[in-house]
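Repro case for the chain-ordering regression, as requested:
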Amino acid sequence: MGLRSFIHSMTAPRTQGNAPEEEVKMVLVVNHGLKMGKGKIAAQVGHGAVIATMKAGKERPAYLESWLSSGQKKICVKGTDAAHLERLEQEAKELNILTARVHDAGHTQIPSGSFTILVLGPAEEAKLEPVTGALKLL
Amino acid sequence: MASTLDEPTMALIVRHDLKLSAGKVAVQCAHAAVSCTLNAKKSNGRLVERWRQSGARKICLKAEDLAELQRLAGQAQSVGIVSYLVKDAGHTEVEPGTITVLGLGPGPRRAIDALVGELKPY
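-- result from build under test --
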């Protein structure tokens, strides 16, 4: 999608009603096995949120709008390793939750291509709960 | 091919005096990154595209206190760099309305470096 249509999709009035009925949030799962520094984590989580926002703008504009207008609620939790993140991604996809990945370019701290962050949502809290409810906050 | 110095970049500057947890900092930085990206898309969409295509470079730095964040935000505005101060809703670690993180850019790397070159990585 070009920039113009992206902006249009964010600003045009909605006609179809597939808006989420409850508050939506975004969950960012950090690959804790990589032992990244906290600044590194913050930048990677920043990537994840931007990527997920753009993806939601294309695929679930109503969810994006609801998330942006309700204060961009996000939480950040720990996953054990890349395999764990992949499992969570699979579970989320089965529930039709939007997912996005961050792979690091590897300029600092960790090997290039490492799967650093899994982003779930924006999606309804009740829908996310079975997937991420057991994970610890970062 | 453009040199690394011409690639657009984003800086996320964390207030170090608040002693936030790593998860809190990550979420606040994400907030700044999303808001800066959306604001910059409106004012300079081409730059945002170039930034994303070159890997959406971000760095995370620390500032001493609120005054330093505000000073940087003011300087950014005066040179036309997008800035966004994140105000926490105060559900968890800090008082509602506390300013936690400043996002700058995406903007030309040289211009951002000129603003934040003195700061240390977080």
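Ordering looks correct now. The beta strands of chain B are 8-15, 58-63, 83-87, 99-108, 120-121.
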